[in-house]
Write a structure and sequence with these properties.
The protein is of the alpha/beta class and 257 residues long. It contains 9 helices and 9 strands. Helix 4 packs parallel to helix 5 and helix 6 runs parallel beside helix 7. It comes from Bacillus yapensis.
């Protein structure tokens, strides 16, 4: 599976115009998560994201691993992304300290049930280094993310964030920012277009809320390789149902398999 996941990402993220559709699950219990992933899997996303910050037993690492194994069994060949957002990053409140978050992510990297890890780039470099080492050793993809829920930084700042993510060893660099007007959305698309030409890693960008929905719909045309879509429940404002995105991509028809 590790080799297959690496090959899929290399081929489709770096060489194809087709984006990956990622659908989150946010259940609080094992039972809720099983129901949710079963419903999502039949919609054929490219990736399923487990937002583990919503899981009520997140403090119990072995329960997290147990649930990850069950989710992998239910989703079968669909790669699983594990994401743990803090409140400042738009996540659900948890009882874990920043040290425990690093421990959990390293612990989950050592299993065969999760294929990708998402971690915020504003965390200390040493924490990122530890997670990167674990991801690399165990064949996981690392997404380094940046979130700004108040504004869209300048183009220069956004490009520098992308470059920093690459320098820190990210396999994918992700930026999600808040637009204050349509000009902010256009700027983000422009930076996305620039980033795909100057970076050696894939990028994912999104402008938040309804004002930024167009970036989720058409950002892939400008080089964003990952689109977060709704399967059953939204994990962030502005996400579009996966069925609508699948049809939209087919309609535009500017990619080749």
């Amino acid at each position: 599976m590790r080799g297959a996941v690496k090959l899929r990402f290399s081929d489709k993220f770096k060489q194809s115009n087709r984006p990956f559709l990622c659908t989150p699950i946010i259940g609080k219990s094992k039972e809720e998560l099983i129901d949710e992933i079963a419903s999502v899997s039949i919609k054929n996303p490219d990736i399923i994201e487990w937002r583990v910050d919503y899981f009520q037993d997140i403090h119990d690492f072995e329960k997290v691993v147990e649930v990850a194994q069950t989710l992998k069994e239910v989703s079968k060949d669909i790669p699983l992304l594990l994401t743990l957002r803090s409140v400042a990053e738009g996540g659900n409140p948890t009882s874990l300290s920043s040290l425990k978050v690093v421990e959990l992510l390293i612990h989950i990297c050592k299993t065969s049930f999760i294929d990708l890890i998402d971690y915020e780039i504003n965390n200390p470099d040493e924490d990122i280094r530890q997670i990167k080492e674990a991801a690399l050793e165990h064949g996981k993809f690392l997404i380094l993310s940046f979130h700004d829920y108040s504004k869209t930084p300048s183009n220069e700042e956004l490009l520098n964030i992308f470059k920093r993510a690459q320098s820190l060893g990210a396999d994918v660099a992700k930026i999600a920012v808040m637009p204050n007007d349509h000009g902010d959305v256009i700027r983000l698309l422009d930076v996305t277009n620039q980033a795909k030409d100057v970076l050696q890693i894939p990028v994912a960008t999104m402008s938040l809320n309804s004002l930024g929905a167009i970036s989720r719909m058409f950002g892939w045309v400008f080089g964003s390789r990952l689109i977060y879509t709704v399967g059953t429940n939204r994990s962030a404002p502005g996400q579009i149902p996966i069925e609508e995105m699948q049809e939209l991509i087919k309609t535009i028809g500017t990619y080749q398999e």
